[in-house]
Design goal:
400 residues; globular
C-alpha cells in the first residue's frame, strides 16, 4: 500500500549503494592495457591499507567473501594442518568448513550465538596444544548471522600469553568500514573483507591483507594455485597479475569513489556515525522489548556489531514483520540466517551509506509493523531513538 517509491534495502549486505558509486560505474568499458584504469587501480592500494590501518600488503580478488576465505586459507594452509575456529555464529563455522574442504583438521571452540569469544578459553586451548598442531586461529570481527562483535586485540593477547605461533586470521567482511578496526594494533596476521557491505560497492571484489608473518608462511608452502596466490597480486609487476587476469573494471571505478567518500568523511567519523546509529537502534529495541517479546540477540553492548543488529520475536513473528515491512512499506529486512526457529529472527543492516533519517525511517517502519500485526511492544521507541541522535549531535566533536 505504501511501498510505491524508493525502496530501502536494510539487510546486512549488499548494502545501499551511493549515487556517486553508481555514477562512477556508469561508463563504457575502459582500455585494460594502459592508461587511466591502471592509475585508478594502483591508487586503491594505499587507501585499502589505510582502511584497516596496516602498513602491510593487500591483494585484491574478483570474488565475494567466500572467495577471499578460500584465498586466505589457500596461501597459508597445507593439507593436514589444524585450524582452531572461534565460533560466534554461522560465518566463522563456514570458514572452518572451507578449511576442512581444503584438507585441514578443524577444532572448534563454540561460544554460542549470543556471546563474544572468551579469550581465557582460547588461551587454554592453545596452551594445551603443546605439539603446535594448530597453524591458524579463525575468527570474525563481526558475525553477520548473530551480530556478535569480537575483541580481536584480546584474542591476540590470549595467543601471546599462551606463547603460540599460530596465525590469527580475522574475517572483517561485515565490519570493515563500519566497526573500528586496526589490523596492526590488534595483532591480526590476516584480514579478509569484501566490497558489498561497509565499502558500498556491488558484490564481486574481495580483499586479503597479510602481514610479514603470514607471507613467510606462504613462502614455506609447497604449492598454491596460481589464481589464489597472493604474491603476484601484491607485487603487481604486470597489471594483469593484480587480478589474475582481466581486471574487474567497473568495480574498480565504483570502489575508488566509495573509498573517496569514506576518507572525505574521515574514517574515525565513519566509525562514530555507525556507533551512533547503532545506539539509536538499540534504544528503540529496548523500549519495544519492555512491553513485548522483541529482543536484541546480544545483551552485552561491547559485544554488539555497529553494522548489523540481530533481533528475536516469537516463532513466525520475525517472518511476518519482515514480510509486512517489505510488502507494505518498501523496506527489506534481513532473514534469520542460521537461527532456530528461523522464522522468529530477523536482522537490520545499518552499514555503509546510511544516515540518521534513514535509520529513523527504518525504526518508524518497524514501529508501524508491530502495530499493524498486533505484536505486543512498548511505546515511544522512535522517540527514544531520536533522543539518542539528538544527544549525540550535541556532543563535542560530533560529526556534522
Amino acid at each position: 500500500m505504501f511501498a510505491n517509491g524508493l525502496s530501502y534495502l536494510a539487510i546486512p549486505g549488499p548494502s545501499v549503494m551511493p549515487d556517486r558509486v553508481l555514477r562512477a560505474m556508469h561508463r563504457p568499458a575502459p582500455n585494460i592495457y594502459t592508461g587511466a584504469l591502471h592509475d585508478v587501480t594502483r591508487s586503491l592500494i594505499p587507501d585499502l591499507k589505510a582502511l584497516v590501518r596496516t602498513r602491510h600488503d593487500v591483494a585484491i580478488y574478483i570474488a565475494n567473501g567466500h572467495g577471499v576465505w578460500d584465498a586466505a586459507l589457500s596461501n597459508v594452509l597445507n593439507e593436514g594442518d589444524t585450524v582452531l575456529v572461534l565460533a560466534t555464529g554461522r560465518f566463522c563455522v563456514g570458514w572452518g568448513e572451507m578449511a576442512e574442504a581444503l584438507g585441514a583438521q578443524v577444532e572448534t571452540l563454540d561460544f554460542g550465538d549470543t556471546d563474544a569469544v572468551d579469550p581465557d578459553r582460547v588461551e587454554a586451548a592453545l596452551r594445551a596444544d603443546t605439539a603446535g598442531r594448530i597453524k591458524a586461529v579463525l575468527t570474525v570481527l563481526v558475525d553477520t548471522s548473530t551480530g556478535v562483535r569480537n575483541d580481536i586485540r584480546a584474542i591476540r593477547a590470549a595467543m601471546d600469553a599462551a606463547g603460540h605461533e599460530a596465525l590469527l586470521m580475522c574475517d572483517g567482511i561485515a565490519s570493515i568500514g563500519c566497526d573500528a578496526y586496526d589490523m596492526d594494533d590488534c595483532g591480526a596476521d590476516v584480514t579478509v573483507s569484501a566490497s558489498q557491505k561497509g565499502l558500498m560497492t556491488p558484490p564481486g571484489i574481495g580483499f586479503v591483507w597479510m602481514n610479514d608473518k603470514a607471507d613467510a608462511v606462504r613462502g614455506r608452502k609447497a604449492r598454491v594455485s596460481r589464481y589464489w596466490d597472493w604474491r603476484p597480486r601484491v607485487s603487481g609487476d604486470e597489471f594483469w597479475k593484480l587480478f589474475g587476469g582481466t581486471a574487474p573494471t567497473h568495480h574498480i571505478y565504483g570502489l575508488r569513489e566509495a573509498l573517496d567518500m569514506i576518507f572525505e568523511e574521515g574514517l574515525n567519523a565513519v566509525w562514530a556515525r555507525h556507533e551512533g546509529l547503532a545506539r539509536a537502534i538499540w534504544a528503540a529495541v529496548d523500549v519495544w522489548g519492555d512491553g513485548g517479546p522483541l529482543r536484541i540477540n546480544v545483551k552485552d553492548e561491547d559485544a554488539r556489531s555497529r553494522a548489523i543488529t540481530s533481533l528475536q520475536l516469537g516463532e513466525g513473528q520475525g517472518d511476518a514483520l519482515r514480510n509486512w515491512c517489505e510488502e507494505t512499506m518498501g523496506v527489506t529486512l534481513g532473514i534469520g540466517l542460521g537461527r532456530t526457529p528461523a522464522s522468529a529472527y530477523f536482522r537490520l543492516g545499518h552499514m555503509g551509506h546510511v544516515n540518521g533519517h534513514m535509520v529513523l525511517g527504518l525504526l518508524g517502519t518497524l514501529d508501524a509493523g508491530l502495530k499493524a500485526l498486533e505484536i505486543p511492544h512498548g511505546h515511544g521507541a522512535v522517540e527514544a531513538a531520536s533522543a539518542v541522535l539528538a544527544d549525540l549531535s550535541r556532543a563535542p566533536g560530533a560529526a556534522g
